[in-house]
Amino acid sequence: MDNRAEVRDFLASRRARITPAQAGLTAYGSNRRVAGLRREEVAMIAGVSADYYVRLERGNLAGVSESVLEALARALQLDEAERLHLLDLAKAAGARPARGRRRPTPPVPDSVRAMLDAMTGAPAVVRNDRLDILATNPLGRALYAPLYDGPSREGDRPANHARFAFLDPAAHDYWVDWEKAARDTVGILRSVAGRDPHDRAVHDLVGELSTRSEEFRTRWATHDVHLHRGGLKQILHPVVGRLDLMYDTLPIAQAPGLTMLVYTAAPASPSADALQLLASWAADPSAAPA
């Protein structure tokens, strides 16, 4: 990834979405030739010179102080994910340029695999930053069955959330709100690319998806980012039907870059009953519910 281009496009896209009124400024006249704020308006709000902000928006974040970055984040009304992305871009700008390399995925620790096996009532999976699924418990494998069975999984490479979302038509049926799932998936990958712009595997995945999916290309161009920490997933499973599941993400401290996702259903809910059916199907796939 080209850090300077990433910085330029990210700052310009955030600036373009804020109107003077949203920024607390008075707009005189209607002949504004730019969408959103002008560069000098961002500079004024952030407390820096216009020339300095222009230099920043051209992609030069190397050596910029954290106080200036925080001032930019406030001026551009960045949310937490966007603020962290800006800090990651600045950190990458100050690092020594590196040739693209494949950062090895740490193995799933034996203790984590044992934990997965011990979790019998909740679907659980382990994935890496690139959204590869590296390990599951039986209920997690059953929940993610479409990711394993569809055309987006080729050869011996692992099931992958992003490939499934954009390369498998079944994804549109699997997620009740496919648009949100697609937007969040792209936002996660954009955040990862900002943290490590020289990761060849991330670069290759983004290139593959950009080449094969116009839906991915369109969303990638927005430069939106997303923190995937927890929330609600609504899934229409091909075997047990609708599932409304709460999920939490748990970083694995002994294997940086790996995360465990655990799904739970509200007690005594239709989704809890559906999880019970899913567990029965996971134990005996030939006994699928009618």
UniProtKB/TrEMBL annotation:
PROSITE patterns in UniProt: HTH_CROC1 (PS50943)
Transmembrane segments: none
Gene3D superfamilies membership: 3.30.450.180, lambda repressor-like DNA-binding domains
One Gene Ontology MF term: DNA binding
InterPro entries named in the record: Cro/C1-type_HTH (IPR001387), Lambda_DNA-bd_dom_sf (IPR010982), MLTR_LBD (IPR041413)
Domain (HTH cro/C1-type) ranges: 32-83
Name listed for the protein in its UniProt record: XRE family transcriptional regulator
Species whose genome carries this gene: Cellulomonas triticagri
Organism ancestry: Bacteria, Bacillati, Actinomycetota, Actinomycetes, Micrococcales
